[in-house]
Every structure is written in C-alpha cells, then in structure tokens.
Design goal:
CATH superfamily of one domain: Winged helix-like DNA-binding domain superfamily/Winged helix DNA-binding domain
Radius of gyration: 22 Å
CATH class of one domain: Mainly Alpha
CATH architecture of one domain: Orthogonal Bundle
Strand order of the largest sheet: 4-3-5-10-6-9
Low-confidence stretches: none
Number of helices: 10
Length: 298
C-alpha cells in the first residue's frame, strides 16, 4: 500500500532551510539556487496545507508545525543515512579538512564531539594552516577559510561574518582611553595578515600611528596567547575570538566598531555535495553555525 508522502526533494529543501534558518544558506548547502529552495518549501507547505516558516527580509524562522516536522524529518534522514552506509558494507568514510587555526581551536574542536556522535562512521583529518589550499589540486575535501569573496570555481557556503577587534588584558585596557594611546603599547601582528592593524587604525582615524614596539606571530591563536599574557594588544575576529579558550583573559579596550571585509566560508569541489560524508559534514556545520549565530542575538 503506497504511503501518502510529500516529495523527497521538498523534504530535503525544508530540512536544509529549517536547520540553517535561511533559504540562501540552504541553497548553498544543497548546491541549488535560493529560488529553488523557496519553490520546494512552498510546494511542501501546499501539500501539508499549513505554513512551515515565517518569512523575514533576510532570515526565516520555523512555525510550531515547522519545528515539529523538522525534528521528525531530520531523525528520518539520519536513519536513512545510517542504513545506507550499512548496506554499502560499513566502509568507513574519511574527510580531509583544511581549516584556519583560530576557527579550529576556538569553534570547531569544542563542537567535534557532537559531529562524532552523529556520524561515528566518518573519520576526520584536520590540517590547521594559514596557507590557502587549492581545493581542485590538493588532497583536501573541505577547506574553511576567511575570505573577502567566495572562491570562484568551487562550491562555497558562507558560515560567519566577522569584524576586527583589538583585544588585550584588563590591565593594559585600563591604560587605553582612545586608539591614539596605542602609541605607547606593543601591537601584536599576525604575519599572514600583516595589514590588519594598519587598516583598523586608519578606520578609526589613527592612520600612521607608530607603536612603541611590534611583535609578530604566524597564527592568530599564538597572537591571542601573547595578548592574554600581557605582551601587548592583538586583533581578534569578533565574534569568533570570544569562543577562544583564552577569551576569559581578554577584554575589548575600545568602543569603536570597524566593519569587517571578510567572512568564513566552507569550500568544496563542485558536485561533491553528493558524497555522503561531505553532505553530512556540510549539513552538520551549517546547523551548528545557525545555532551559534542565534545565540549571539540573545
């Protein structure tokens, strides 16, 4: 006896949009257009004869019916994925990920347990580096990078917008009333982004400022470690910097807010979203990031 089920493509679009809280992010995750997601969700709502989302100008939120359905659909997809993997012989999947050190240390590692519980059959090999890998030529499945624009020629999903923010210990912050006071401090640089301080100072009207001393490191976590130990003032990426294990020793000395010119993106080769392990990781990280961003608004 045939069951009265809605179309699978509509359920996939709904699950992706409900998890991400955005038709646009869902479209990136599934490798389709936002209008395709909207069309599929609308078709599902018509099939069910009830709304599943409240539409906003940039984001969408689930209705009570939508939340109930999302819980059931996500669990069903998870069971299907596990059953399919078992039928394939239980061959363990392996993902090679290249990610920036700050993102890995501050955000990814604390959440990996959730991914491992959800996908115990997928092994992860994570390389932390500032080097921009060539996703088409190198032995990497997924790259997580801080980019000004999405990488051309690859599938890119925006994860998080960030902005530069000076950070230091409370003791040093007490000596700083305005950005011009940085002339008496040590400015901590990251060699891969050596122009960050100059851009921030120019944006707050202190362009050309000469600090008492410069200190440079090759990674953001190392720069933050030095700042947390009182070696000077570093620039972190808000809000990600506050997820760092060092955040408890760091404060923001100035009220000025400078707009960011880059965002964190997840990048993979086009067409590879059909690989179960890539689809699983993309779905998980989009979901986790959506929860993280919702928490920032509270």
């Amino acid at each position: 006896m045939a069951r009265p089920l809605p179309p699978l493509t509509a359920l996939q679009a709904f699950e992706a949009a409900g998890t991400a809280g955005s038709f646009q992010d869902a479209a990136r995750a599934l490798g389709v257009t936002p209008s395709a997601i909207s069309h599929q969700v609308k078709a599902l709502e018509q099939w069910l004869e009830r709304p599943l989302f409240k539409r906003g100008p940039r984001r969408v939120s689930l209705t009570p019916d939508g939340r109930a359905l999302l819980k059931t659909v996500s669990a069903a997809f998870e069971r299907i994925a596990k059953a399919s993997e078992a039928l394939r012989g239980g061959k363990p999947a392996h993902l090679r990920i290249s990610a920036l050190p700050l993102f890995t240390n501050a955000w990814l590692i604390p959440r990996l347990e959730a991914f491992e519980k959800r996908h115990p059959d997928i092994s992860l090999e994570i390389e932390t580096t500032n080097r921009v890998v060539d996703i088409d030529r190198e032995n990497v499945d997924i790259a997580i990078r801080n980019l000004r624009t999405a990488t051309t020629g690859a599938a890119a999903i925006k994860l998080l917008d960030v902005r530069p923010v000076p950070v230091c210990t409370a003791k040093i912050a007490a000596q700083l009333k305005s950005p011009s006071d940085l002339a008496s401090q040590t400015l901590i640089h990251v060699s891969a982004r050596d122009g960050t301080w100059a851009a921030w100072l120019k944006a707050v009207g202190a362009g050309g400022l000469k600090p008492r001393r410069k200190l440079s490191f090759d990674t953001v976590p190392a720069a933050l470690e030095a700042a947390a130990q009182g070696r000077g003032v570093a620039i972190g990426l808000d809000p990600l910097v506050w997820e760092s294990p060092l955040a408890g020793n760091l404060v923001r000395p100035f009220r000025q807010r400078v707009a960011g010119d880059a965002s964190y993106y997840l990048v993979h080769r086009r067409g590879e979203q059909v690989r179960p392990e890539i689809a699983a990781f993309v779905s998980w990280i989009v979901s986790e990031m959506a929860l993280f961003k919702r928490g920032l608004k509270r």
